[in-house]
Please model this.
Amino acid sequence: MAKTRVLISGASVAGPALAHFLQRVGYDVTVVERAPAVRDSGYAVDFRGPAFDVLDEMGILDEVRGLDTGMRGVVLVDGTGAETGRLPAEVFAGELEVPKRELTRILHRITADDVEYVFGDSISTLTPRDSGFAVEFEGGGPREFDLVIGADGLYSKVRQLAFGPHTDTVRHLGMSGAGFSAPNHLGLDRVGVLQQAEGAAVYLFSAGDPDRLTVSLSFATASAALDRRSRGEQEAAVRDAFGRHGWEVPRLLDAMAEADDFYFASAGQVHLDSWSRGRVALVGDAGYCAAPTSGMGTSQALIGARVLAGQLADSGGDHAAAFAAYEARLRPYVTENQAKGREAALVFGGGAMPVS
Model:
């Protein structure tokens, strides 16, 4: 009997995790990723609650624990840099925090021998067939797959092709931010510094590399339109939002222009009546992003991947039943996390969460 052929779009966290579980139960899995290689971007990801069970089931829990950034907490400062309070590490770092690039490397390593990876490419069209899809890629001709899974983030190409435009599914939470690295001139060591003002926040931390300062400059925005603008336009918006701030901000704005890892993103959530349509399903941020303010993105991705793979394995080949069971089991958890994301966005009043 031929193996079920599954195409997964996205090789960050949800995609490789799902690939790992599916290939273990006999699926023929291909992962396509727009980036030319395993992504080396992103700052830190954290794990909470049931996500540890998933890491343990994958056999990587001890390895991931060994990469703990060891964050010791966050210092709150006023507009002059004077300390006004402290927050425990768990607020931003969860129960365990590791560099995102290390997690993606581990997930790729444990799947590379049994999963086909196609880097530097993306899905361009999905054409339904009687028992699957003819998939056209931007870099090549069509291939046939039985199932297609979108694990490609907030602005998922799979979701756009199968469910409709992003404007119908992505809800902006009123904040955007720039992230980048700078020299650690403050000498921070496994500690964060947070300065909040009305409608804006500066968050700095150093973990892992004592010479590197990770910077997040978040501010209130009416829409996510800046996500689709050029870096120059994004930097201009950041300067406009922070141009009147004192303390270390002028120096940070100068460093932003020199950063080779500049990243800009808006806080948003994905809301869908259903996470599947026919032979297409979504996992992680592509289907139910809870926003960075929730602190649950990585945990949701891992748990969603395990639940989806488990339902497919138990379905006896009935993908529709598997997709329905996956959603029924996971949606209450996602609904709770999305509520946390919205509440945190309101509390932070326009930005205190690092983009990643």
Q: What stands out?
A: Residues 58 and 336 are 25 Å apart (CA to CA). Residues 350-356 have pLDDT under 50 and may be disordered.
